[in-house]
Specification:
The complex is a heterodimer of chains A (328) and B (263). Chain A is an alpha/beta fold and 328 residues long. Helix content of chain A is 32%, strand content 30%. Chain A has two domains: 235 residues, Rossmann fold (3-Layer(aba) Sandwich); 62 residues, Malonyl-CoA ACP transacylase, ACP-binding (Alpha-Beta Plaits). In chain A, helix 6 links the parallel strand 6 and strand 7. Chain A starts with 5 loop residues before the first strand and ends with a helix. Chain B is mostly helical. In chain B, 74% of the residues lie in helices and 0% in strands. Classes of the chains: A alpha/beta (328), B mainly alpha (263). At the A-B interface, helix 1, helix 2, strand 5 and helix 3 of A face helix 1 and helix 5 of B.
């Protein structure tokens, strides 16, 4: 990845939601209590042009708040923020022309007209010159396989088709930054894979900067070398996804089948041993006993027919991370 | 401008998708508006006019107000649905686009069915013209159009205030309807039929009187509540735009405090 200039910068970014609720009983109708809920507290980060960055965190962590602040939907209560050097909520219309946004749980195209009509209206909303729009549309129609559905009203499309149409709509004006809030939610496996491929290509070929929130760890692994982890409105981690996962990948699991009923022997008590039928499952922390040592003991115990090292389920790793950060 | 025309065409095409329901609803509009007109006809027949107004002069007020209000409703559907625009996240989407939010809200849903009420209003104006023997001059026509435009601006302002409250509470408030729908009902009759406080309210606070009734009186050549009209009535409808200006400031302020919903 090339080191581009800084395209998004946040410093001490803070958003407070004030929730007013009536008190109890009849008098509560007149007395109001105001409760402050921290949407985002003192978040600071920088994103360079061409990066793909994932926003990770449990529900209510501040991911959507962050995206909404960066897109100018919300006004911050504190801190500074620059998207291409402009403050989003003050110069909303100026940066709008250069960003695209897709919210997975919402429909942004007009639901009762053919998809192509929506795209045409978007052309005029963003004032894209006709020739340029046409070229871009052809390109996206190809890449997202939209050819067959351009004349179909949005409401008749499947979820996967809809999401592809939404993506196309958000990219027609060739934005520098694409914000995606849970783009793969509810999609089947094939649609997810296609979407990931498309996003990777979009980033590689056009250098589009992508900021993505998702609960799907497979999305994260496939797309985001770098993640920002949010919890309770605070930025808790900013760095490589691999490094983060390795930190919580503290337990390895080996599955082993012997020929002729041999049993593992000579393992220290820190290794958990379980038997299911003729298969043995060993769990251990590589920090305490190296994988090689466990393997050696197994090979010494008898003729090994099958041996698999099971990879940790990333969802479990993330759950462990959330627990460690006291987010759950 | 290109965007505005395009969005309007799209609204029409959407309405055309449901052709028969569209026709039925226009018919319903006509029947309902005609019901209001019928009430005037009945009253005036019983009492032979209202105060110093003849039946057909009252019809003139009725027609002007109905048309202005119907046009407002044609462009106000988006603001009327603001709470659902907020809930469904459509307002968020609009905020990510390089266009004014008020324009996007208005263009998100136009209501061409109101053409039915416009038709009834025009009929009332026509009948009133024939029966009173009024001779239209070009300035008269311009004054009436200007007055109706000011009234539309005023009503839009009121509906925007309602929308601003929605931005804070995500719920709509009915109190403003006292002035919007209440204003339409009240001001389809000459204001000097009402007690002083009501007349003052709708003349100067919610200035439908300045926007529409003084111009109408000027065209009819009659005073309103003893006040003779003159060239100054041309200034009246500007009050609607001043009002709208203040309301759009409130709207901007509201957007700055907008909190969005869910994820």
């Amino acid at each position: 990845m090339s080191e581009g200039e800084i395209i998004i910068r946040a410093e001490g970014l803070t958003k407070v939601y004030r929730r007013t609720s009536g008190g109890k009983g009849f008098l509560g109708l007149f007395r109001r209590r105001t409760e402050e809920v921290r949407g985002l507290t003192d978040a600071g980060f920088e994103i360079r042009r061409g990066e793909v960055v994932g926003l990770l965190g449990p529900n209510g962590a501040g991911k959507s708040t962050t995206v909404k602040l960066l897109t100018g939907i919300l006004t911050a209560d504190g801190g500074a923020c620059g998207v291409m050097g402009r403050t989003p909520w003050l110069e909303r219309r100026k940066i709008a022309a250069d960003i695209g946004a897709v919210f997975g749980q919402r429909m942004q195209l007009w639901w009762d007209v053919p998809v192509l009509d929506s795209f045409r209206l978007l052309r005029d909303i963003y004032s894209v010159p006709e020739a340029r729009w046409k070229a871009r549309l052809d390109e996206l129609t190809d890449a997202l396989e939209l050819g067959g559905i351009l004349q179909v009203p949005m409401r008749q499309l499947s979820l996967g088709q809809r999401m592809r149409a939404e993506l196309c709509g958000s990219l027609l004006h060739e934005p520098s930054i694409l914000f995606l809030d849970e783009p793969t939610i509810g999609l089947d496996a094939v649609s997810k894979l296609r979407l990931r491929d498309f996003l990777r290509a979009e980033n590689r070929e056009r250098g589009t900067t992508i900021l993505l929130t998702t609960h799907d760890m497979a999305d994260m692994l496939a797309l985001c070398p770098r993640v920002l982890v949010l919890g309770r409105g605070r930025l808790l981690y900013d760095g490589g996804l691999d490094a983060l996962l390795r930190r919580y990948d503290t337990e390895h699991t080996l599955r082993c089948v012997f020929d002729g009923g041999a049993e593992p022997e000579g393992l220290p008590p820190s290794v958990g041993v379980r038997r299911e039928g003729e298969a043995w499952t060993l769990t251990f922390a590589p920090a305490e006993i190296p994988v090689g040592e466990v393997l050696a003991k197994l090979l010494a115990a008898g003729p090994v027919r099958e041996l698999t090292l099971k990879e940790q389920d990333t969802d479990r790793l993330v759950a462990r991370m959330y627990a460690d950060l006291k987010l759950t | 401008m290109r965007y505005v025309m395009h969005a309007m065409r799209m609204n029409l095409r959407r309405a055309a998708q449901y052709r028969s329901s569209f026709r039925m609803q226009i018919a319903a509009q006509i029947v309902m508006t005609f019901g209001d007109l019928w009430a005037i006809l009945l009253l005036a027949e019983r009492f032979g006019g209202m105060a110093h107004w003849s039946l057909y002069e009252v019809m003139f007020f009725f027609g002007a107000m109905q048309i202005a209000f119907a046009v407002t409703e044609m462009i106000n559907r988006g603001f009327g649905h603001i709470s659902s625009l907020i809930r469904m996240g459509d307002l968020d989407t609009m905020l990510t686009r390089p266009r004014g939010i008020a324009a996007q809200v208005i263009l998100s849903e136009l209501d061409p069915r109101r053409i039915g009420s416009v038709a009834v209003g025009l009929t009332a104006l026509t009948v009133a013209t024939l029966k009173t023997g009024l001779r239209w001059t070009l300035p008269d026509v311009l004054l009436l159009l200007w007055g109706m435009t000011g009234t539309v601006a005023l009503m839009m302002g009121l509906f925007m205030i309602e929308a601003v409250v929605c931005l804070f509470s995500v719920q709509s408030v009915e109190i403003v309807n006292v002035f919007t729908y209440g204003g339409r009902q009240t001001c389809q009759y000459p204001l000097d039929l009402y007690p002083d406080w009501l007349r003052t309210t709708f003349t100067y606070v919610i200035p439908i009187g300045l926007c529409l009734q003084f111009p109408v009186c000027h065209i009819l050549g009659k005073p309103l509540a003893g006040a003779e009209t003159g060239g100054w009535v041309w200034l009246g409808p500007a009050a609607g735009f001043v009002f709208l200006g203040l309301c759009s400031l409130a709207w901007r302020l509201g957007l700055r405090h907008y909190r969005s919903t869910g994820s």
